[in-house]
Write a structure and sequence with these properties.
The chain has a single domain, classed as MetI-like (MetI-like fold, Orthogonal Bundle). Helices cover 85% and strands 0% of the residues. The chain has 10 helices and no strands.
Length: 251
């Protein structure tokens, strides 16, 4: 058990030490703090951020908006995915819409949607839009890939439609849905923060990044960016652990 923890710690620390050392060396060789600050300067800026109440409020606001958008996108995506599988006529209408949403750049959506929503709601909407097509496509694929033999068994035992779905369709779709959820976290987070930056959303992580860039506060810019990256990794880790727990319970 101890060796397992040591191996896990090594896998985490070695990349951090390597890339942190490379960043430190690059900053020393370049010797232009305005372009590339040193690691101590970034660490000092990060500690300064952690001591501000406004930083934690911005973090909570951004996290809340993105998670809300993620939840809405997952629910709508699951609904669209089920409709695609159950109703061929609905699939003809929904699939082109999903293709458009998937193909449109985030910046374009930000500009288009901003006309209808305020900057505080916009990151939520953008996060939901980025998640929706991924969940819909994966769920529809999983539902369609159920083993026909199980369907024959379900029909033989005359199971109710709900029971048939729970026993036959849902187990086949869960791996696809779980994979989509894990990928959706990163998409929603990046899209939501990008929307905050582009619209300079008040009281958000995006505004912190925008303001630091505007004032040429490069160490602080790196500190805000590291915060966004770390939160993305933590969210993805939490979702993976949660889904693995649900999968174990389901089996």
């Amino acid at each position: 058990m101890r060796n397992k923890y040591l191996a896990g710690a090594a896998k985490l620390l070695l990349p951090l030490l390597f890339w942190g050392g490379l960043l430190w060396l690059s900053a020393l060789l370049l010797d232009k703090p305005l372009l590339l600050p040193t690691v101590p300067a970034i660490g000092k800026a990060l500690l300064a951020l952690l001591g501000r109440g406004s930083f934690w409020l911005a973090l909570a606001a951004s996290l809340g908006r993105v998670l809300a958008g993620l939840g809405i996108g997952v629910v709508l995506g699951a609904l669209f995915g089920a409709l695609i599988h159950l109703l061929p006529a609905a699939a003809l209408l929904i699939r082109p819409l999903l293709t458009v949403v998937r193909s449109t750049p985030v910046a374009s959506f930000v500009i288009l949607v901003w006309s209808f929503t305020g900057s505080r709601i916009l990151p939520l909407v953008i996060a939901a839009l980025m998640v929706l097509p991924l969940v819909a496509d994966e769920l529809a694929t999983g539902l369609a890939g159920a083993d026909p033999a199980l369907g024959e068994v379900a029909a033989l035992y005359r199971l109710s439609p709900l029971r048939r779905f729970l026993v036959y369709r849902l187990p086949a779709a869960l791996p696809y849905l779980f994979g989509a959820l894990i990928s959706s976290v990163g998409f929603a987070w990046k899209a939501g923060i990008a929307a905050e930056i582009l619209t300079n959303t008040a009281g958000s992580l995006g505004r912190g990044i925008y303001t630091a860039k505007l004032h040429l506060e490069t160490p602080e810019l790196w500190a805000w960016t590291l915060t966004v990256i770390l939160l993305s990794l933590l969210l993805e880790f939490f979702v993976k652990k949660t889904l693995r727990f649900v999968e174990r319970r389901a089996t």
